Amino acid sequence: MNVPNSTKKRVTDVDVLIGSRLRQARMLANLSQTQIAEFLGITFQQVQKYERGTNRVSAAVLHRLASMFGLPLAHFFDGTGPGSQDIDLAESNARMEFASSREGRTLIDGYQRCPPKVQATVLSLIVAASNSLDADDAATIPE
């Protein structure tokens, strides 16, 4: 099979999404890029490139990372396959950035330490507050 030489490897939205999910997993595990690099036998700069999506992560490396984090390999690809809706990368990245932030990790850790009844109450409060904000925004939109 002839493959034209002009086909250059290009970074795709999926590469960026995988990198973002890698960063999120690393941050939630409280690991540094250097620690991940040592585990993989690469430089921390390569890990940075993976996380930014500027370099593509090989299947073998992704498999090792999924095993290390205790995640299914599919975690890195959720929402990218045939029949799935298009990825809203901006929204996905914003959520992952928040979950990876100090504030996000504190919120998640605190929530997970709460008993299920408290978790349900907290979730209801957040949903009610965000719905209230949506209603306030709609009320101020001029017609």
Structure overview:
- It contains 7 helices and no strands.
- It is an all-alpha fold and 143 residues long.
- It folds into 2 domains: 91 residues, Orthogonal Bundle (434 Repressor (Amino-terminal Domain)), CATH 1.10.260.40; 36 residues.
- Helix 1 runs parallel beside helix 5, helix 2 crosses helix 3 and helix 5 packs across helix 6.
- The protein is globular, with a radius of gyration of 19 Å.
- It starts with 12 loop residues before the first helix and ends with a helix.
Largest sheet: none
Counted by DSSP, the helix tally is 7
Shape: globular
Measured as a percent range, the helix fraction is 55-70%
Radius of gyration, taken over Cα atoms and rounded to an integer in Å: 19 Å
Uncertain segments are none
Task: Determine the mean pLDDT.
Answer: 81
Q: Encode the helix/strand succession as letters.
A: HHHHHHH
